[in-house]
Amino acid sequence: MLVYIVRRLFIAVVLLFIVTAVAFSIFFLVPRIAGASADDLASRYVGKSAGAEQIHQTAVHLGLTDPIWVQYGRFAKGIFVGSNYDTGPSVERCPAPCLGYSFVTQNPVLPDLLKRLPVTMSLAGGAAVLWLLGGVFAGVVSALRRGTVIDRTAMGIALAGVSLPIFFTGLLSLSIFSYALGWTAPGGSYTSITTNPGSWAYDLMLPWITLAFLYAAAYARLTRAGMLETMNEDYIRTARAKGLRESDVVIKHGLRASLTPILTIFGLDLGLLLGGAILTETAYSLPGIGQYALIGLNTNDLPKVLGVTILGATFIIVANLVVDLLYAVVDPRVRTR
User: 332: domain CATH number?
Assistant: First the structure.
């Protein structure tokens, strides 16, 4: 088991290195391959009225004229020890871990991300609990009541959840439940859980339900398919022949064997949302990481987008690492391989 954990940790570190290299290449190497010069890249960090000389000096100050491997080495070094950014009039310090420096807001990227992280974590965590419980429950019930009205209704709702985009269901839910009926908080409302837990849950209830509706549909369909396959196995018939209660047969034997694919997509989905739920945060005007990335795209502030990309990839890698470790708990066969 210890060897398994060490091997997964090593793979996670290697993947994180690869992700940082690929993300950096997308923003700085690919434009060069496409024909962009260092001055073209530097023009994104200066105002529209800047002249050619000012743009070139900015490129020199930012190190954009250096070879790409030198630029990446400087960026990777900044993650561990921090970086200094020469803006011309002054030198700005970006403390470690430095994921970039925004020349639009004149701030390091990581502190801004950490300020918005509780919003995204609250949104993703609450919605994950709802979609995991609701989706698995609906999938189990549908599998046990295969072909009945309950099965068809649940799968019909699941199909609608998968098909409807979040910006449609989000805005429709706001117009009905917030503005027409007044049951939920309006868009743009967020209270920290440390300030008022009740207001925190009230503000996020509608975004949680909307986001969970989208993901629970896929989990219900996957759970149903897994349960239908598992409940026909020989060991299920053996468990019933031994006189076990039906609830024990379903939960301890049937559902547990169906959890492996559920854990796989759950790690991916949760890690992806922690990196920014752009559509949900935009629909409900929540000041999270997804909204931060959208602002960076609209203002052409590449360090913000690069920082969000690396942070999101880190969450996905960590979530998959946790899932790999949970495999050994859910499926004992993993520990013997």
Answer: 1.10.3720.10
pTM of the model: 0.80
Q: Which residues pair with 85 in a beta bridge?
A: 92
Answer yes or no: are the C-beta atoms of 230 and 254 closer than 8 Å.
yes
How far is 263 from 257, CA to CA, in rounded Å?
11
Are the beta carbons of 231 and 254 closer than 8 angstroms? yes
Calpha distance 52→271 (Å, rounded): 42
Tokens of 130: 């709802």
pLDDT tens-digit map of 249-275: 777 767 777 777 787 788 888 887 887
Domain residue limits at 66? 2-89
- Give the angle subtended at the CA of 253 by the CAs of 251 and 255, to the nearest 5°: 50
CA-to-CA separations, 170 to 177, 201, 214, 220, 255, in angstroms, rounded:
10, 17, 10, 21, 32
Task: Quote the number of domains for the chain.
Answer: 2
pLDDT in tens, 97-155: 888 888 778 888 899 999 999 999 999 888 888 888 888 888 888 887 887 888 788 87
